[in-house]
Structures are given as structure tokens and as C-alpha cells.
Design a protein that fits this description.
Elements lengths: L6 H10 L4 H17 L4 H7 L5 H10 L4 E2 H7 L4 H6 L3 E3 L3 E4 L1 E7 L5 E7 L21 H9 L5 E7 L5 H7 L2 E8 L2 H13 L6 E5 L11 E6 L24 H9 L4 E16 L4 H8 L5 E10 L1 H11 L11 H17 L2 E12 L9 E5 L9 H14 L9 E2 L3 E6 L9 E6 L6 E4 L1 H9 L6 H12 L3 H17 L3 E2 L1
Parallel strand pairs: 6-7, 6-9, 7-8, 9-10, 11-13
Antiparallel strand pairs: 1-3, 2-3, 4-5, 10-12, 11-12, 14-18, 15-16, 16-17
The structure holds S-adenosylmethionine.
Length: about 500
């Protein structure tokens, strides 16, 4: 896939066929669309069989990976079949044509309709998964997760490290003047360049060949978004470049975290989707905290933990090495499983954390603000606005005084629990319904203070009133509850 000259005519054909996310969803209907997201094609084939439209043809060709009558494909992609065959997008026979690459519509949360070319989705209808070492991943759960994490404020410059098919670069181009994507996989570089051209974003997106930050030496950006090859493995044996960095353990994530500040402008953010090692006998956040650069505030959120065995199983299935997902034998699977697991054991890996690392080069003098939060609960998506707000909340919390007039955030509710019929609740929880949906246990004073924060009375006046009501000493209340109120501001429950 090299010819970007094909991008313009292909775009015209996809456009003419109305090959958009919404049109595909409408033609397939909910059930078939959901089945396809589970890699099951049978319901979608029933919905597209008799139609004969260009849209149905493109769905069968690219999304169902069917061999389609050449005449129908010629009608859907007029004058392009042989050219797409020569470019490696299609496999052309005398009477039939099949896809060699995936091409699918993609609707972003920001409201853009895009097309994304990548390698074919493996394992449709239970077929054995087999991925080559230079496989170029399409839009995965991880890509969507990073897309939802990425701040979408307008910026001048953005960097997508490990661009793959270029999906993050395409997102970034919607709100950045210039985007650079880097990768080491020649096939990914070609596909990302093609996707930039296909979406008429090649004037903004530049794809550079090289490892991580090497192609952007001495360059700084306002935003770095990266879904790096973070799988934690012994880095021996064959390497699947889309997920293995070639570095052992979580060294790749450490490298990005430590190097990012050199490539950030003041005010810039680096957002990383990552896996990290949780070492035996150490808190999950200890190793991570040691990587965090002094120049940056850091908000790290651990979303999930897998034990080593589950982790090995997950990734061996992903690459088709489990006999149920691939063509490999049980003996080969067991050998790989044992090698990987014994390496994790030798490295004293107790678990593997999945989550988000957000670095903000604030440009402020003084100690960096950091929060390492374990938050495996459901959050509002896209989560990016809550991440952006975090920096402001931490800044506001650092300055809370009793003269402040605070307001409870509109989405915060109070939940109480206790024995049936009891006059007072046993526990009170204040809970956000938006953003990170943080929850915090509160005592009667905290709950009363939060409830009274409507922007009229100062914190001091509220504490005095609560003290009087509960017959508590005013000075003691200030000493105990001002830090608590600052925490509530830092976590976004209370605002100025
Ligand atoms: C998990 S994929 C992410 C692809 C895409 N950015 C996304 O969000 O879906 C990781 C990408 O990093 C690339 N990669 C692997 N090693 C790299 C390196 N040393 N430098 C830059 N990119 C690398 C892989 O080729 C792959 O495209």
C-alpha cells in the first residue's frame, strides 16, 4: 500500500456509496451491527445479500471479508479495482474480488466522518487468528480508549507516538494545526500516510519513520497522545510490532514517561495508555511514582489489574496462540504460556496494571502536583474533559482558604445507608455523576458543609454554622475540615 494517488478517487467512491458509519449501521440494523462487533458476520450477510447497492457491496467486501462478484465491486469502486489490486488493497480474480486490507468508516466523538484503512480484522466467525509480525492494527478498544482520554482543546502541534494506521493522528488533526505521527513499521507508515490522504488531512499530518521520539529530536509539542506497544513480555522470540516494543517489561512506558517532558511545550500534555508491572511487595503506584518527571504534574489512573496468568492468556489468545483462537497446537501454547509466566515470576511480577498516565508540563515553579488513583469503576466517556479539569482542580485546592465561597458541583449527589428505620444513616457517600464519577465517604460535618456550599456563604461561615448546629468547637472544625475541603476541591466535588 504505497500509492497515495489512489486516495482521492477512493474517497470519491466511498463518498458516492455513502460508506459512512451511520449508513452502515442503518443498513445492518442493530442486531447485525452488534454481531459484527463480536466478529460474527452471518447476520450482516443476510442484510446485505439481496441489496446490490454500492454500500452493501463495500460492507461485504471490507467488513465481512467476502469474495464479491467483480462486477459489483467495479460498480462500487468504478475504475479502481485493478489499481487497488496493484496497491495491495484488493485481491483481484477473474470473477471475484476480495479485500487484502480493511477499509471502514469511522465516526469520531467530535462529529467527524472518517475512513480508516488497516490490516484485516483477524478471527472473523471463529476463523483462526493469525497475525504477521508487521501487522497493522485497525481501530481497537485500546485506540478508542486513548481517543476518549485525549484532550480535545485546539493546539498548534500534536504528536502521535506509534501511529499504526494513524487513527490517533486523524483525531488530533481535527484540533491541531500540525500533527506528527511516528512508527517503526514500514507497513504502518505507508497505511498511516494513505489514511491521512484519504481523509484530506495530509496537509496537516506528517508521518515519520523512527523509534518513539527519535524522529522528533529537539522538537516540542502541545499535546502527545500515545497508545504504545506496551505488552509486558520477556522481549525474546518473535516480536509482534503492533504490541511488543522489543524492550523488556514495562521499560517502554518508563521511557516515554521520562522522555516526554523534553518534547512538551509549557502548558502541554502527554497522555499515555499503558500497562505497568506491579512488583511483589510494593504498592502499584510506587514504581510508577519513581518515573514521574519533576517538570510535570501527573495524574495516573489505574483502571484494571490482571494477575500474571490472566495476562499471559489474554495476549496469547490475542495473537492466536491459544488453540481456540488460532491454528497452534496445545503443546506450543503450553510452552509459550510457561515461558512467559516463568519470566513474570522471575521478575517478581505480582500483577499488571492497565491505565492512563497524564503528564502536564505546567511551567509552574515548585513541586509537581501528582495523583496516582486506583479507579476501576465506570466513568463518563469521553473522559478527557475530566482529565483537563484535574489540573485546575489541583491548582484551586492549593489555595483554599476559609474566605472562599465554594459551590458544590451540579452533578454531586449524596447517598446514605443504614439500618431500616434508623434516624441517622450509618454511612454517607458523596458521589459525582459525571466525569470520573468519584465517590467519597463523608461524615456528618463534611456532608453538611458540601450541602451548604452554594457560592453565597464563605467556607468559614459555613463551618461556624455547622459547628453551632452540631455543638462542635469552631477552631477544631477549621483545623480538621479545611484540609478535607481542599481535598473535595482537588477531586472536583466543590468548585470556586
Ligand atoms: C498498539 S499500536 C497503536 C496504534 C494506534 N496508534 C492506535 O492507537 O490504535 C502501537 C504502535 O506502535 C508502533 N511501534 C512499535 N515499536 C515502536 C517504536 N519503537 N517506535 C515507534 N512506534 C513503535 C507499532 O508499529 C504500532 O503501530
Amino acid at each position: 500500500m504505497t500509492s497515495t494517488d489512489l486516495a482521492a478517487p477512493l474517497r470519491d467512491a466511498l463518498d458516492a456509496a455513502d460508506f459512512t458509519y451511520d449508513a452502515v449501521a442503518a443498513l445492518l440494523g442493530d442486531d447485525a451491527h452488534r454481531a459484527l462487533s463480536r466478529n460474527e458476520t452471518a447476520p450482516a450477510r443476510r442484510r446485505t445479500g439481496g441489496d446490490g447497492s454500492a454500500l452493501a457491496t463495500l460492507i461485504r467486501l471490507f467488513l465481512l471479508q467476502d469474495a464479491v462478484e467483480r462486477e459489483a465491486v467495479e460498480a462500487a469502486l468504478p475504475g479502481l479495482v485493478d489499481r487497488l489490486g496493484a496497491a495491495g488493497v484488493l485481491l483481484t480474480g477473474v470473477g471475484e474480488v476480495a479485500a487484502r486490507l480493511d477499509c471502514r468508516p469511522y465516526a469520531t466523538a467530535e462529529g467527524d466522518d472518517l475512513w480508516v484503512v488497516s490490516d484485516l480484522t483477524p478471527g472473523l466467525d471463529g476463523a483462526p487468528t493469525s497475525v504477521s509480525s508487521d501487522y497493522v492494527l485497525g481501530i481497537s478498544q485500546a485506540s478508542s480508549s486513548l481517543a476518549q482520554l485525549t484532550l480535545r482543546d485546539d493546539v498548534a502541534t500534536a504528536l502521535d507516538l506509534g501511529t499504526g494506521c494513524g487513527v490517533q493522528a486523524l483525531h488530533l488533526a481535527a484540533h491541531s494545526d500540525r500533527v506528527v505521527g511516528t512508527d517503526v513499521n514500514a507497513r504502518a507508515l505507508a497505511i498511516a500516510r494513505f489514511n491521512a490522504a484519504l481523509n484530506e488531512l495530509d496537509d496537516k499530518i506528517e508521518i515519520r519513520d523512527g523509534s518513539f521520539f527519535e524522529p522528533v529530536a529537539r522538537q516540542r509539542f502541545d499535546l502527545i497522545a500515545t497508545n504504545p506497544p506496551f505488552v509486558i513480555s520477556p522481549a525474546t522470540g518473535e516480536r509482534l510490532v503492533y504490541r511488543d516494543s522489543g524492550l523488556p517489561g514495562d521499560r517502554v512506558v518508563e521511557h516515554i514517561v521520562r522522555t516526554a517532558p523534553e518534547h512538551l511545550n509549557d502548558g502541554g500534555w502527554c497522555q499515555i495508555l499503558a500497562n505497568w508491572v506491579i512488583e511483589e511487595g510494593r504498592g502499584w503506584d510506587e514504581r510508577l511514582a519513581a518515573w514521574l518527571p519533576e517538570e510535570c504534574d501527573a495524574f495516573v489512573v489505574q483502571r484494571e489489574i490482571l494477575d500474571p496468568a490472566s495476562y499471559v492468556e489474554l495476549w496469547l489468545k490475542d495473537s492466536g496462540h491459544h488453540p481456540s483462537t488460532g491454528a497452534g497446537s496445545a503443546a506450543d501454547y503450553l510452552r509459550r504460556y510457561d515461558t512467559w509466566l516463568s519470566w513474570l515470576t522471575e521478575q517478581r511480577v505480582a500483577g499488571i496494571g492497565f491505565g492512563w498516565i497524564n503528564l502536564h508540563r505546567s511551567g509552574r515553579a515548585g513541586a509537581p502536583r501528582t495523583e496516582l488513583l486506583e479507579w476501576p469503576y465506570d466513568v463518563e466517556q469521553p473522559i478527557a474533559p475530566a482529565i483537563g479539569a484535574w489540573a485546575g482542580q489541583r491548582a484551586a485546592a492549593a489555595e483554599v482558604t476559609e474566605a472562599d465561597r465554594l459551590r458544590v458541583r451540579a452533578d454531586v449527589v449524596q447517598e446514605t445507608q443504614g439500618p431500616v428505620g434508623a434516624e441517622d444513616p450509618a454511612t454517607i457517600v458523596v458521589r459525582q455523576q459525571a466525569g470520573l464519577r468519584r465517590a467519597r465517604q463523608a461524615d456528618t460535618v463534611t456532608a453538611a458543609v458540601v450541602g451548604a456550599c452554594d457560592g453565597d456563604l464563605s467556607v468559614g461561615q459555613i463551618l461556624d454554622a455547622v459547628g453551632e448546629l452540631l455543638e462542635r468547637d469552631a477552631a477544631t472544625l477549621r483545623e480538621v475540615y479545611l484540609p478535607e475541603i481542599a481535598d473535595l476541591v482537588a477531586e472536583g466535588f466543590l468548585q470556586r
